[in-house]
Amino acid sequence: MQARCNTTALLASGYDIPLVGLGTWKSEPGRVTAAVKSALASGYRHIDCAAIYKNEDEVGNALAASIHQGVVRREDVFITSKLWNSDHSDRRVKAACLKSMRDLRVDYLDLYLIHWPVTGNRGPDVQPPLLETWKAMQDLVCQGLVRSIGVSNFSVSKMEGLMTAPGVPLSVCQVECHPYFRNDGVHAWCKQQGIHMTAYSPLGSADSASLLGRNAQMLLQNETLLSIANDLKRSPAEVLLQWGLRNGTSILPKSTSSERIKANLASLDWQLPQVAFEALNNLDYQRRMVDGSFWVNPAGPYSNLEELWK
Ligand code: A2P
After folding, report:
1. Any keyword Oxidoreductase (predicted)?
2. Which residues are annotated as a binding site for substrate?
């Protein structure tokens, strides 16, 4: 168990990020506390949260109870939260961060991410500009509230815009990544820049199919995957999580089932053979499950999906 807990990647900030974290997006209210307690007791040392998931208070209760019971110490757990779109103004960033910290019952965050390059304004440009928000994020590190900062759902060119600001580095880029959406361009650029990439929806986010509302293919039912899992006597989920680790990202499988929570952490305990890794790297079907179409508006700033992701 100890070896698993210590399996981390080094961030540009100088802190380590554990490679397997529990995702809490879409974790139903009333089930998150038990899921987080179960994860911490099983050996997870990384919990991925966000204000918009509307369950940070439940995560906070689980964390406080686990610390109180001696299951973990605060300093051993890596807690991520994310700034929501309505809080991008430099007057709101700190208050939003403090609210998440209060709900999570922590006096610092390990990682704080800008959740989307979106503020909800209409017009040609994102307002307030993303650089303003980023500078306010950097201030949180200078004030000791946050250890590392980064972004989620950003493209390379949007990250390049932020990197014009000197000072606290962009440590983490959290994006959708799995064999049905490898996100190769963002990944290669992050590697080159020393930015750690974290994969959300590493199982292909079967429960997000409704977001697309069209005939999305289910990664967990892909025939190549099923055949590899069968040959290796592993579950399809184990194979996908190993693929994510072998791909060089940290992974955030979401589950509220204590059995699956445990099983998903065990993805650290074995290695996917190269040939299987490559077979999964070559699936033709490539499509986002979380495609961001909810942010597209003819009045801008993103009048189509290309503009959002470019
Ligand atoms: P549940 O919470 O009931 O376990 P992703 O992380 O890609 O978004 O996927 C999350 C979805 O995958 C959830 O529906 C979750 O359901 C399910 N899931 C999590 N772990 C496993 C697993 N080991 N095997 C199959 N499905 C899983």
Report:
1. yes
2. 115
